[in-house]
Amino acid sequence: MIKLIVGLGNPGAEYAGTRHNAGFWFVDALAQDAGAALRAESRFHGLAARARVAGADVWLLEPQTFMNRSGLSVVSLARFYKILPDEILVVHDELDLPPGTIKLKRGGGSGGHNGLKDISAHLSTPDYWRLRIGIGHPRTQLPAGNPQVVDFVLKPPRKEEQEAIDQAMNRAQEIIALTIKGDMEKAMQHLHSQGSR
């Protein structure tokens, strides 16, 4: 079962609408649906809430350490509540998936994502669950401009990209109950059979 859902992003109003904050968007939506208020928790270096999601009590967390140091926040809460790595779901933006695509997987590399890299280092394992929200890659989304990845992820999606991302996150919310219960096979089957739209 999943006991902790972590959304990755950067704190501050200037980052709120940027692609790199897709994880925050998802956790904000979960908190809103659950009627939970994320509050600053200094001991966890983030915004946290205990929420009733799909009939289960889970922790929602948004690290406020900036992306590169997300692991400090995740490990602080996980250790305090004795939550194991395979009971953690990290929601993050994914360059290797186009907007409108969303994938669930366990373990694997960081794919150059500094938030995942730091979480894996702090947990001493990459063996936690990831919900990967496709944002596309600058070489495919903006091939003419040839922007750097860092510039791309720290800018807001274009209107059509945002709509595709929102639809993908809505589909992910449909399988969150299965995910929390630990029925990952069924959750992945449902999510991945939808394909990208």
UniProtKB/TrEMBL annotation:
Where tRNA is bound, by residue? Y15, F66, N68, N114
What InterPro entries does the record tag this protein with? Pept_tRNA_hydro, Pept_tRNA_hydro_CS, Pept_tRNA_hydro_sf
- Extract the CDD domains matched here: PTH
Q: Where is this site: Stabilizes the basic form of H active site to accept a proton?
A: D93
Database matches in Pfam families: Pept_tRNA_hydro
Which chemical reaction does it catalyze?
Answer: an N-acyl-L-alpha-aminoacyl-tRNA + H2O = an N-acyl-L-amino acid + a tRNA + H(+)
List the active-site residues.
Answer: H20
Alphabetically, which GO biological process terms does the record hold? protein quality control for misfolded or incompletely synthesized proteins; rescue of stalled ribosome
The UniProt similarity line reads:
Belongs to the PTH family.
Q: Name it.
A: Peptidyl-tRNA hydrolase
Write the lineage as a comma-separated list. Answer: Bacteria, Pseudomonadati, Pseudomonadota, Betaproteobacteria, Burkholderiales
